[in-house]
Amino acid sequence: MSYTIFQSICAAALLAGSACATPALPDSSVAAAAVRDALTVRPAVPAAPSAAQQAAQNRAAAIASTQAVREPVALTPIRGKTAIARSTAYNSVPGQTDATPFITATGTRTRPGVVALSRDLLRVFPYGTRVTIEDLSGRYNSMLRGRVFMVEDTMAARKTNSVDIWMPTRTEALNWGARQIRITAVR
């Protein structure tokens, strides 16, 4: 009972002609146990990570896994694998990327030669794979001939069988449009 409530009750009892007794204190062993419990260090229960914290943890794990494995891509069994996929282009603006538009999923900066793959294609061509791209319409083959791209980014989970090529300007990305391509893993 708080002290002000006790004073109010006591004042009412005195007006009625009754005696006002102070409340009894708890036994000293109860007080000692309460102090001991208050001073005991309990392990903190970790709070559930927020979506941003979880994304940062996932990105850090992806970076660590790519940095830990430093074997050449040429020795991996994916060399020579091909896939036909839908290709689009993107550039570093928040509307087309996440909150960090200039940082790829592997933690590197965006630059010419970076491609993002849908998650199903990442199983075939993991991060760090060097690939060539051939435009099946033939329109951009002269631009793509002899270029090697690096898989360093990923696309939204809703995308399937898709390749996104990073381009420095919005105009270049719009000119690329959407097209069918053949992606091939190389050395």
Oligomer status: single chain
* Beta-strand percentage range: 15-25%
Helix content range: 25-40%
Tally of contiguous helical segments:
6
**CATH topology grouping of the largest domain:** Barwin-like endoglucanases
Determine the structural class based on helices, strands and strand pairing: alpha/beta
* Shape call: elongated
> Looking at this structure, what is the CATH superfamily of the largest domain?
RlpA-like domain
Task: Give a count of the beta strands, DSSP E runs of length 2 or more.
Answer: 6
Query: Between the first and last Cα atoms, what is the distance in angstroms?
Result: 78 Å
Task: Name the average pLDDT.
Answer: 76
| Unreliable sequence segments | 69-76
Taking all Cα atoms into account, the compactness measure Rg is: 32 Å
List keywords for this structure.
6 helices; hydrolase activity, hydrolyzing O-glycosyl compounds; alpha/beta; 187 residues; 3D_dom; six-stranded mixed β-barrel; Barwin-like endoglucanases; signal; elongated
Please provide a written account of the structure:
- The protein folds into two domains: 37 residues, no CATH class; 113 residues, Barwin-like endoglucanases.
- With 187 residues, it is of the alpha/beta class.
- About 4% of the residues have low confidence.
- The N and C termini lie far apart (78 Å).
- It contains six helices and six strands.
Short description:
The protein contains 6 helices and 6 strands. With 187 residues, the protein is an alpha/beta fold.
